[in-house]
């Protein structure tokens, strides 16, 4: 293929990077995902989606599904899921000294210290109206002078109960000053760090790659499919879910409502090669910059994986196999959690520093995932009877071919010309019939 036909080998175009940045920057903490789904993705979908496509909305959450063939339930349905919700901190209580004590959710307490954040508070006088408070930082100990020796030398860490938001409140009635701002328990707090290009080529870093990247991939696959004229035999459901970070409750609702025949969760993965201190765990060598990842194990469908792997191989798209145990850890589980019969798997891209303010990824891995999924949908669309394809072709290990040793055919004893493999019977010149005879003898 030429370089023009392999965008996953090229730098990501500026306009595409800007879209990715806008999606990741949308303030969409758990339960408040509409900034991403309605503020960024809905206008983006409307910019390219044919009029026949439909955007499904939900009552209980701000997730959306872009549907290529609405109401055509007889078609084979493939759902591709990214999740819009971000891990967040939340206000627990307000101290007399003006400190806003917060929980740490899925963050390590130590990765929070000193970082700028945004607090989103509902106006108590106008329920449903939110304000954004900027300029605060997350703290725990104050100055090093107030910490004990064990914390100074690193032998003692931080407890989540020590974490607070500092709004630089001073003067009289500090607690009341905070209360006057409308800050209340449960208010969401998120990092203020949009992504930017990294130092090394094709890299980027910032907050909330988990999982704005999955939403970006789903949206870009939808655009490419629309530009290619859509699909004829496959009804594609491009889903942007909520509640993944607290148990994948949004995607299972979508799967339960729409009952896809095949489902692909798209989420970030780990760069295990670069991860510090885990060498003794012997993790699979997933690595940033080496292509997208595909889950093997758990509920991952070998049939669906085969289509993805073949599509990637046929188009020279780099792919890494990711071993998962009882749970994929992603929205790829949505079908089984919703009790829906769906062939499912999970794909992703290795990143570093997950659940920190400096999550780091590679644009070529993301582009590889986009184009692998696009080619997968095209491959599925070309199959004559998709439902029978998945019903009838589950792998049969009882039919696995015996694998014989493929080593040298060296004779048992030197100089015995009667043995196969002697100088007069060179393996490179044997007939096909003699090769078959030899294989039977080995068996």
Automatic annotation (TrEMBL):
Gene Ontology biological-process annotations: proteolysis
Top-level taxon: Bacteria
The keyword Metal-binding appears for this protein: yes
Annotated region (Disordered), positions in chain: 394-443
Composition bias type Basic and acidic residues, residue spans: 407-427
UniProt keyword terms in alphabetical order: Aminopeptidase, Hydrolase, Metal-binding, Protease
InterPro entries hit by this protein: Peptidase_M42 (IPR008007), Peptidase_M42_aminopept (IPR051464), Peptidase_M42_dom2 (IPR023367)
GO molecular function, one term: aminopeptidase activity
Keyword DNA-binding: no
Family named by the database record: Belongs to the peptidase M42 family.
Protein name: Endoglucanase
Native source organism of the sequence: Vreelandella arcis
């Amino acid at each position: 293929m030429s370089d023009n036909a392999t965008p996953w080998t090229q730098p990501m175009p500026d306009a595409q990077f800007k879209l990715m940045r806008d999606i990741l920057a949308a303030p969409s903490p758990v339960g408040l995902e509409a900034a991403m789904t309605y503020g960024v993705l809905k206008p983006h979908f409307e910019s390219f989606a044919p009029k026949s496509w439909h955007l499904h909305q939900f009552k209980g959450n701000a997730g959306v599904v872009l549907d290529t063939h609405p109401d055509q339930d007889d078609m084979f349905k493939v759902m591709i899921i990214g999740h819009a919700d971000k891990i967040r901190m939340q206000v627990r209580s307000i101290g007399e000294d003006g400190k806003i004590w917060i929980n740490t959710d899925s963050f390590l307490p130590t990765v929070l210290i000193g970082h700028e954040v945004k607090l989103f508070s509902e106006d108590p006088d106008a329920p449903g109206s939110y304000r954004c408070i900027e300029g605060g930082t997350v703290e725990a100990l104050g100055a090093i002078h107030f910490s004990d020796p064990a914390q100074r030398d690193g032998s003692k860490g931080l407890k989540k109960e020590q974490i607070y938001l500092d709004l630089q409140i001073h003067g009289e009635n500090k607690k009341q000053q905070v209360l006057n701002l409308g800050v209340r328990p449960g208010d969401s707090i998120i990092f203020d760090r949009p992504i930017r290009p990294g130092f090394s080529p094709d890299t980027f870093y910032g907050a909330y790659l988990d999982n704005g990247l999955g939403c970006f991939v789903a949206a870009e696959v939808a655009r490419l499919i629309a530009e290619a004229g859509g699909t004829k035999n496959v009804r594609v459901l491009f889903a942007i879910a909520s509640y993944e970070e607290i148990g994948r409750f949004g995607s299972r609702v979508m799967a339960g409502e729409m009952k896809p025949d095949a489902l692909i969760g798209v989420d970030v993965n780990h760069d295990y090669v670069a991860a510090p201190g885990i060498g003794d765990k012997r993790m699979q060598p997933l690595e940033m910059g080496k292509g997208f990842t595909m889950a093997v194990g758990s509920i991952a469908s070998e049939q669906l994986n085969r289509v993805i792997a073949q599509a990637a191989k046929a188009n020279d798209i780099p792919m890494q196999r990711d071993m998962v145990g009882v749970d994929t850890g992603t929205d790829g589980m949505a079908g089984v959690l919703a009790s829906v019969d769906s062939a499912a798997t999970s794909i992703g891209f290795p990143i570093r520093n997950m659940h920190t303010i400096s999550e780091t990824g590679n644009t070529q891995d993301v582009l590889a995932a986009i184009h692998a999924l696009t080619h997968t949908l095209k491959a599925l669309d070309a199959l004559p009877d998709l439902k029978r394809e998945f019903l009838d072709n589950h792998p049969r290990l009882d039919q696995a071919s015996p694998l014989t040793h493929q080593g040298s055919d060296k004779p048992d004893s030197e100089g015995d010309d009667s043995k196969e493999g002697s100088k007069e019977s060179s393996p490179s010149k044997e007939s096909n019939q003699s090769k078959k005879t030899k294989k039977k003898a080995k068996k």
